[in-house]
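Please go through the sequence line and token line underneath and see whether the fold suits the sequence. See right below:
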Amino acid sequence: MSNAAPAAYLFCRGDHTLKVTLPTPLVEYTDGLREVEASGKTLDDLLQDLDRQFPGIRFRMIDEQGRIRAHIKLFVNAELERSLGAPLATSDAVIIVAALSGG
């Protein structure tokens, strides 16, 4: 059993907490924070934890079919990751990039 607080243990926090950098279009969900922490053993777990902390943020990145939206790019340690099942380590850094559109 982990030494993390009981509530943290229930929500997968503690041993798998990672730093996540967000693009400007998503900071409206985080009260202006560009960098937050989230937990997860996979990229999907991490995005679900982000949504638990900041309701609605996951839907801006993942569509109704559970796929990464076309305008969103997820990077783990500066490498583009296309699989939500990708495993994460506590040393990983996740950067979320949103493509700009318009004209």
Observations:
- The chain is about 15% helix and 25% strand.
- The first strand starts at residue 17 and ends at 21.
- Confidence is low (pLDDT under 50) at residues 1-14.
